[in-house]
Design brief:
The complex is a heterodimer. Chain A is of the alpha/beta class. Chain A has 3 helices and 7 strands; from the N terminus they run αβαβαβββββ. Chain A has a domain of 113 residues. The longest helix of chain B is centred in the last third of the chain and has 25 residues. The chains are: A alpha/beta, B alpha+beta. At the A-B interface, helix 1, strand 1, helix 2, strand 2 and helix 3 of A face helix 2, helix 4, strand 7, helix 6 and strand 8 of B. Strand 2 of chain A pairs antiparallel with strand 7 of chain B, so a sheet runs across the interface.
């Protein structure tokens, strides 16, 4: 492995520096620390691009989705549900951006959006549409999180269904 | 506590195992080939697999009261005003004791792992996996498992720990960052249902945000983040790279008011605190390709620039 070592890595010098730095760590040092949930690759690439992480910012919203009327046989957009998704996402992302502003950041990288549906089914009169309680997951990575428990009526059934929360 | 002396607080079986590893002159690990190569390229050598375990009984959690149940008179049998308590508040109703126990248990496991590492003459532990499971004879078992590595020079007073893999460790190291230790941010928050949450979650309420639940989730996660920062400051590191972010929400029957529900939120952040030791970044002379254009001509031009 000898001639394969990285070019400037003098095997004696660099680990020495690293260990010397650890030896001089003092608890409770004043000064700002940064937090981030970037992976190591993301962290190094972001720094290479000229940015440095300031802090982990979070935003959440628990949203109640209203009644959605519709018919099974009809092709239609479920506008109440669409509107709920947009609004909840906007609330959560807005809070995340506000936190970033408070830190004096230029932007947010690695945003992870988590939309979780928690469905409670309760008996109501028939004729109301029961929206599909599928899990919605937005793509991407991130520092933000959003949670949307969703309560919707079901026709003629009584059940309680909880979904396990999963954060990133 | 982890000074590698003869009495380092380790059980006899662990001490015997460390002595055997030292005597045999060989070491075992669960490193993959890639991790092994990456660690060796930094100038550190693996010295053996190390383990720390602690079994705790979480008896007194501190969440038996519910201050939110007394938030004034309201309609529908629920209080008018909601009260959110998080474990960082430190008042009698929060889950402070439970969070303190979770911290203490994880710290015990990690400290024992560090003690084993010091006995092997290592400078730190990489690839730490933290796990919680129920112990067959009762209680919760907290385990920390990793690979101890040794570098040149005298041993450190407190060996470092990190949950980074071997490759991630090498990448950070090449760029001038060194892991200082594992850090945790744990918080538990609770909220009793109040008039607003009840009205906002009724079936006829329409599209609306539920302010009470949002508040408990937000405050709990903020408190977890604050605990994490406190942990990083305790180590004296420069920052933290978080690897695990979990949030769990569950309901329970309120102990104070019959027939009512409380929502309990647990937020956990686990990461590695890092410290900068090298100001010049060595990765600069071969920059990574961060943006790949879909235009073929621009891509060709970029290729030429990189090869130069």
């Amino acid at each position: 492995m000898t001639d394969q070592t990285s070019t400037e890595l003098s095997a004696a010098g660099v680990p020495h520096d690293a260990l010397a730095r650890l030896a001089e760590l003092r608890p409770g040092q004043p000064g700002s620390i940064f937090t981030s949930d970037l992976s190591v690759n993301e962290f190094l690439l972001v720094r290479e691009a000229g940015f440095r992480p300031l802090g982990l910012v979070l935003g959440s919203s628990i949203y109640h989705v209203g009644l959605q009327f519709g018919r099974w046989g009809k092709n239609q957009e479920l506008d109440v549900l669409s509107q709920a998704m947009y609004h909840a996402r906007e609330l959560a992302m807005g809070r995340m951006e506000a936190e970033a502003d408070a830190l004096g950041a230029d932007g947010i990288v690695g945003v992870r959006l988590d939309v979780e549906l928690k469905v409670h089914l309760r008996p109501v009169r028939p004729g109301l549409l029961d929206p599909d309680p599928g899990r919605v997951r937005a793509a991407g990575h991130g520092d933000g999180q959003l949670r949307v428990p969703h309560r919707a009526p079901a026709a003629g059934r009584r059940a309680r269904q909880h979904r396990q929360e999963r954060g990133t | 506590m982890a000074d590698g002396g003869s009495d380092s607080g380790l059980p006899a079986a662990a001490q015997a195992r460390m002595a055997e590893i030292r005597r045999s002159g060989t070491w075992g690990s669960s490193l993959s080939t890639d991790e092994f190569a990456a660690i060796r390229s930094t100038g550190f050598e693996p010295v053996g697999q190390v383990l720390g375990a602690a079994v705790y009984n979480v008896g007194y959690t501190g969440g038996f009261a519910c201050p939110g149940a007394w938030g004034g008179f309201g309609r529908y049998g629920v209080p008018a005003v909601g009260v959110t308590t998080v474990s960082g508040d430190g008042n009698f109703a929060s889950f402070g004791p439970m969070v303190a126990t979770l911290y203490e248990a994880r710290r015990s496991a990690i400290d024992r792992m560090i003690a084993e590492c010091a006995q092997l003459g290592g400078h730190g532990v990489v690839g730490v996996t933290l796990s919680i499971g129920s112990f067959p004879a009762g209680g919760l078992e907290f385990k920390a498992l990793g690979t101890a590595v040794r570098g040149p020079g005298p041993p450190l007073a407190r060996p470092f720990t990190s949950d980074l893999s071997g490759q991630d460790f090498a990448k950070l190291f090449e760029d001038g960052w060194m892991p200082a230790g594992l850090v945790l941010g744990i918080s538990v928050g609770a909220r009793h249902d109040d008039w607003l949450t009840v009205t906002q979650t009724r079936w006829g309420a329409g599209n609306t945000e539920v302010h009470g639940y949002t508040e408990v989730v937000t405050q709990t996660r903020h408190d977890a983040r604050e605990q994490l920062e406190r942990d990083v400051t305790r180590l004296g590191a420069d920052g933290v790279v978080v690897t695990t972010v979990t949030t769990r929400v569950r309901e329970r029957d309120c102990p104070a008011a019959e027939g009512r529900r409380d929502h309990i939120v647990e937020a956990t952040l686990i990461g590695t605190a890092i410290a900068r030791f090298h100001s010049a970044s060595r990765a600069a002379e071969r920059p990574s390709l961060a943006i790949l254009s879909l235009d073929p001509q621009r891509r060709q031009a970029a290729r030429v620039r990189l090869d130069r």
